[in-house]
Each structure stands twice: as C-alpha cells, then as structure tokens.
Amino acid sequence: MAARVEQKPISGISTDSPNPSQSPEPMRGARILCEALLKEGADTIFGYPGGAVLHIYDELHNMRGRLHHVLSRHEQGAIHMAEGYSKATGKVGVALVTSGPGATNAVTGIANAFMDSTPLVVISGQVPRKMIGTDAFQEADTVGITRPCTKYNYLVKDVGDLAEIVKEAFYIARTGRPGPVLIDIPKDVTAEKAPFVYPDRLSLPGYRPSVHGRLSEVKRAAERICEAQRPVLYVGGGVIHSNAFDELLELAEKLSLPVTPTLMGLGCFPSGHRLSLGMLGMHGTYWANMAISESDLIIAIGVRFDDRVTGALEKFAPHAEIVHVDIDPTSVSKNVRAHIGIVGDAKSVIRQIMDVLPARACASSEERLENWWAQIGEWKEFAPLKYENSDQVIMPQYLIEELFKLTRGDAIISTDVGQHQMWLAQYYPFNGPRQSITSGGLGTMGFGFPSALGAQIAFPDKQVIAFVGDGGFQMTAQELATAVQYKTNIKIIVMNNNYLGMVRQWQEIFYDGAYSHVNMQWLPDFVKLAEAYGAVGLRATRPDQLSGVLKRGLATPGVVVMDILVSEEESVYPMVPAGAGLKEMVLG
Amino acid sequence: MRHTLSIMVENKFGELSRIVGLFSARGYNIESLTVAETLDPKISRMTLVTTGNDETIKQITRQLDKQVRVLEAVDMTGFAHIEREMALINVKAGAGVERQEVLSLVNIFRAKVVDVSSDGIIVEATGDWAKVSALIELLKPMGIREIVRTGTVAIARLSEASTTVEELDEEELAV
Asked: Nearest CA to A536 among A546, A524, A549?
C-alpha cells in the first residue's frame, strides 16, 4: 500500500464545558485570564509577583475570595507546590511567575512535572510585545527555554486569543499523558481589553489521545495472561493518573497475579496486600526483581521501563513476553520491545482486558500459579528487607517504621530524591493512591517540602508530611515562611545523616570510599531554623527519643520541623549497581 | 541510513523549532528541511531528510506524531514515493569547448540554463537527491562557483504500480 499522507479536515474536539459565556463588557487580559482559570475549576494559584505580571496581580487583588493565591518564597517552590497540589488532588496545578528570572527559576519545577507527567498550567509574564527580542529588563525567551520540558507552550500575541489558549492549555495538560503547559503572556496583553468569550469547543486536529486499546491486541493480551505460568504485573504512575486503583486490584485478585509497583506507582496497589511484591528496580525488593527476571509474561501498565527500573536492558526479563499498556504511544517499545503494545488509558484497558477474560481462566488461575507463588515465597524468605537496628543511633529504616506506626499509613508523604526516598519506598507501605508524592524522573532535591506544602494546602485537614534529607531540605527551606504564613499544619521530618547520603553511598561503593564533597560540614540548627520562621522545632538524636519526638511533632498543631539525627553511613540495600542486570543485586 | 520524513503540522509560530528540537536534542543532524503551506493554508508540510539508526528514527517519528500541532508524521522511506529537489549551480563556462561540455551535461540531465555570461552559466537542475548530486559531481571539474539546493520534497505515489512520466523518460535516456 502506498503511503498516503492525506490532509485531514480540521475537526472540532468537543469538550464537556457549558455553552460559551459571553461578556458584552470588554475586560483587560489579566481579568480574562482569571475568569478563564475559574472556568477551568482552578481555585488555588501558587505564585510569585514581579513587574511583568503586575496587571495580573492587580486583578488577583480584585478576585480575593474567588481565586486563592499562595505566595511562595521562590518560583521553584511555587511550581513544586502546584505539582504537590496536583498529585494529591488529581486536578491541574496552577502556578504564576514573572518574566525573566521568574520563569528561569520555574524551569526546574516544570522539568520535574514533565518527567513525572504531572498536569500543570504555568503562567509566566513576558515583557511587552514590542520589547520582545530587545534584551529588555527581565526578558528571557521563556517559550524557547521551556519548549523541551513542557508538553506544550504558548506565547500569547493577541488578547483575543487568551481565553481559548487557557482552555486549550488545561485540556492538553490533563488529557493523554498529562504534563505541564506554559502560557507566556506579554505585559501589554494583560492590559489590553477584549470581550471575554469562553469557547465551548477546541480545535486540536493533531491531538487525539487514545483512551481504549485496540481490541485485537487486548484479546491477545488476555489470552497470554490466561496461559502464563510466571506472570508479573508491573505497574506505575499511569495507573494513578487514570484512577485505575479499583480495576487493578480486581484484575490482580481475579487471577492471583503478583504486582510490583514502580516508585511513581507506589500506592496504586495496596502495599500490604498479599499479592504485592513491593517496589522493583535499583533499590527494589529482591523477590520483585527476581520475579521480573524469571517471569514468562510481564504485564506492564502505565510505566515506561525507566533505566532505574530495568537495570541493564540486555539482561532485563530475558524469558518474558511483554505486554505494554500505556497512554503514550512513544513509551511503548521505547526501551524494551513490547510483544503486545496497547496504547490506551490504564483504567479503560484493564477494564477491556477483564471483559474478554474467559471465566475458566480466572477459576484455574490460583492453581496454575501455585508453583510460581511458591518460588516467589522462597525468594522472599531468602532475602527479606532487613537492617540491623541499634540502641545507640537511630537507623533510618527504624525511623520510617516508627513513622508508619504513628500514621497507620494514612498520611500523604512527599520526598526529595536520594536515600530517604528509597528507604521510604521500601519501609513505608502506602496503601492507596495519591499518598506518595515524590520526584521520580528528574530526581529533584528540594522537591519534597514545597510539594508536600501544595498537598497540605489542597487538604488542610489531612496529615501531610514532608520526609526529606538534610541536603534537599536546605534547597527549598525558605518555604517555611509560606507554610507558616498560610497557617498550615505541615510536618517536616528531616532525616539528617549529615551527608548527601546517596552520593556518599556511591562514592563508598564505586569510588573506594573517597568522599568528595558529600559531607555537610556545616549544617544549620534545624530546630532554631524552624523557630526563626515561627514554626516549632524538635530534635531526636537517640533511638529512645524517636517515638516521643515523632508523636509530639505529629500531634503539635501548626508547622513542625523534626530534626532526626540518623546513622551517618548507612547504605540503601538491596541495590542493583549501575549497568548490572536486575538479578545481580547486592544484598548488603 | 537516509530517511525522508513527511510532517503535516498546523501553521503556527514556534512549531518549526519544536520539531527541529526533537532532532537536535538527540544530536541528530538534519540534512535538509523544506517547509511550505499545503492546499489548506492553516497546515504546512515539512519534508525533512536525516540520517540515523532505524530504531531511533522510528522513535522520533512517533515523537513527532505525538506533538500537539502535528497532524501526521510519516517516514516516507518505507513507502513508494517520489522525491525531488532543485539545485541552482553557478559553473564556470567560457566560450568554446568548455561551454559545450557544460551544455551537453545540462542536456543529458534534462537541466536548464537560466543565466549565462561570457565566462559562466547558471544551471537549474531538478531530480532526486542522487541525480542532482551526480550532476554536481560531473560539473565539479569545470569549476563550480556556487551551489544552492532546495532540499528534498517528497510525495506518496498514487499506487505501488504507478510510474512517473519522468521515470519513463529516464529509462529511455539510459538506453
């Protein structure tokens, strides 16, 4: 067949918004922006003012009571807060920054959201249109800088386009594989007037995210699932994005399938469930990694075969057929070739698979997988997660176990990147979705605290904990002012080992213990730091103090920083060294 | 391997750099790139020639297809298609044998003379990349002063069995 690249007519994409709202009175761009945000259901904006967004901030002053604005202390913090807000609620997070340095400070947060598929709409101010390209004060090519780390971005050149752009931005951010969308608005556009017309349809002829999987592939996948002797469900963030918690649980239980979540998937399947193997990958459990390596069928849902999951690609799951379900067609067969690739939304595709499963397969599954489960049990017995506790020094793993006891797994917990993040993934069994918030893909230090703050602002009455290291906390600690100003109840636990622990661990293992610039030779007194910001500071230095400090800290109203001094040179195990296969784990 | 990608994209500013960015981010060189409006002025066609590992090109093609404003991205290399580019070649050709030699090559390649002076000729040549390159190679010994090439454009064949009129012509020529 010849390749016919035919022109398709531009067709409207109908969305679920009400009839177009018209305002006969022209209003300035800044007001149009606020009205459009309200139309999209935004209630909270995380932002930081500046010259190019003065008109917008003037409008926000008028919108008090309708649009809540949270003033961060750094633009990076504002974006992370919006991301935490989005991760906890499932809604699109909204952030507002000024031109130039405001936008460049936001880039880390935007890149983080891009890697972890978080839906955000970021609004940045820009210098007036006629000054663009003149090296004007606080000018930066924001659309140019953010193009590779946004799902899409806009420079608004006409106030008449603004309402439609906002609607498009929200639609693009939350549909398909979600991601951040940036709208760069020149200052004069926010001052110019136009009638507010909110469109009820969008024209995006090139943007058609799949929802349902192709039935032929779904059927093939279902057949293979019924025949497999050593199947594993490998599940990730996509399951959380599509709210497929119930569907995944049903599928796994129906067929007695072992389930291993990625870091981004923590909580998409109850960690305490008998079918859960715990996390896989570099610091995953021995039995999850062995199960993947010996599996004959991997059913991968809402995951992207990240290098921290697969280890050496040529050694990854050598015996397995791969069924890969993902909403992003470019993720399927990107790193690991899928034998059956299904492009679609996790929730819909799991439902489709269950609809075509023959009843007898479900009935016989437990029996068929008996040997497989016995094998997994042996691996689990051979190398359980373990650490040596101490009565002299607080072990980080013990800290997390105590925290789990006190929160009973109900808290929302956010982390940075590094040892504390991996230990939390190993030792804190998240039981539901949207409880774990973490920087997975980009691995951003300084993410944990502001993102937890965003989640706390979304849910003022829930227990929200920022679980961070002493290195990462110092990167965004100034947001303590934000936390106190908005009278939040956020709790910050600093797992303080006086080191950049994960880098130290790599230097210990791979660089003959030559510790190069990883020792925090001067740390602030985190208790006094908390007090300087008007928060409560507590400290535990010995194991016998730990439980009391955690209990008091979690029960104290308002912002509390708990500085927990832990064993300095403890390493995270098990570990798959870089470049090794998943079976080549160092058990520690 | 050379790949010719055909990309239909909404005609909005910034789209070109978004697309080019997918290549530069991977350290891939773009050999040629043409962009122009289609029948529908709201849509542009880009034809892009690049060299790279087949798997990576496949991945880039899917990335292109995923872009919000891209209606379709196809690697034409896998399909029956016709490719053309045009070159304007300023070649030394003094009166006499030199000029006769250039004119005979122009004739063989069905190129055109579009400008002439006492010591040179500008030749307009059209054909696929290989043909234009062959003409340039043959003209080089005469002394080429400047070359401007448009880069490749490509269109899908009407059907696998179809033959272009020009190809019929070229077969004759080969005899």
From this structure: A549
Distance (Å) of CA B146 to CA B60, B89, B110, B139, B151: 33, 6, 20, 11, 16
Ordered DSSP codes for A185-197: EEHHHHHSEEEEE
Burial A506-535 (b: 16+ CB within 10 A, else e): bbeeeeeeeeeebebeeeeebbebbeebeb
Interface contact flag, A10 B160, Cβ < 8 Å: no
CA distance A542 to A2: 73
- CA pair distance A192, A203, nearest whole angstrom: 25
Rounded Cα distance between A413 and A427, Å, is 13
DSSP structure class, residue B25: T
Q: Going edge to edge, which strands form the sheet with B30-37?
A: B30-37, B43-51, B2-10, B70-75
Contact B71 A8 (CB under 8 A): yes
User: Helices B54-66 and B15-24 meet at what angle, rounded to 10?
Assistant: 150
The dihedrals phi and psi of A419, each to the nearest 5 degrees, come to -60, -50
The dihedral formed by the CA atoms of A412, A414, A420 and A424, expressed in degrees to the nearest 10? 30
Percent of the residues in chain A that have a pLDDT greater than 70, as a whole number:
96
Nearest to A40 by CA among A209, A164, A191, A205: A164
Q: Compare all CA atoms of chain B with the CA of A157 and give the residue at the minimum distance.
A: B13
Q: Of the candidates A468, A348, A349, which has an alpha carbon nearest to the alpha carbon of residue A399?
A: A468
Q: What is the pLDDT of residues B84-138, one digit of tens each?
A: 999 999 999 998 899 999 999 999 999 999 999 999 999 999 999 999 999 999 9
What is the ipTM score, two decimals? Answer: 0.86
Q: Please state the pTM of the whole predicted model.
A: 0.93
Q: What span, in angstroms and rounded, lies between the C-alpha atoms of B15 and A193?
A: 28
Nearest Cα to Cα of residue A493 among A400, A419, A418, A406? A400
CA-CA distance, A149 to A114, in Å (whole number)? 6
Average pLDDT over residues A22-46: 92
Q: Which residues contact A181 (CB under 8 A, 6 or more apart)?
A: A120, A121, A122, A150, A151, A152, A153, A154, A169, A170, A172, A173
- Residue count of chain A, please give it: 588
Hey, which bits of A137-244 come out as E strands? 152-155, 180-186, 193-198, 201-202, 231-235
Q: Which residues of B touch A (CB under 8 A)?
A: 6, 8-10, 13-14, 17-18, 21, 25, 38-40, 42-43, 59, 62-63, 65-72, 74, 76, 78-81, 156-160
DSSP states of A314-364 as a string? GGSSTT-EEEEEES-TTTTTSSS--SEEEES-HHHHHHHHHHHS-HHHHHH
CB-based contact A383:A431 (threshold 8 Å): no
> How many Cα atoms within 13 Å fall on the side-chain side of residue A126?
26
Phi first, then psi, for residue A135 (nearest 5°) are 55, 45
Full set of structural domains in chain B with CATH: 2-78 (3.30.70.260), 82-168 (3.30.70.1150)
Domains of chain A: 18-201 (3.40.50.970), 215-382 (3.40.50.1220), 396-565 (3.40.50.970)
Quote the radius of gyration of chain A (alpha carbons, Å). Answer: 25
Q: What are the chain B neighbours of A4 within 8 Å (beta carbons)?
A: 156
Region class of A443: left (phi > 0), else alpha (psi between -120 and 50), else beta: left
CB contact under 8 A, A147 and B18: yes
H or E segment and range at residue A420: helix A419-427
The secondary structure of residue A499, as a DSSP letter, is B
User: CB within 8 A of A321, min separation 6: which ones?
Assistant: A224, A228, A296, A297, A298, A339, A340
Q: What distance in Å separates the CA atoms of residue B133 and residue B125, rounded to the nearest whole number? A: 10
The nearest CA of chain B is from the CA of A207 a distance in Å of 5
Q: Do A8 and B72 touch (CB under 8 A)?
A: yes
Interface test with A, best of B66, B69, B155 (most A CBs within 10 A): B66
Q: What is the pLDDT of residue B165?
A: 60
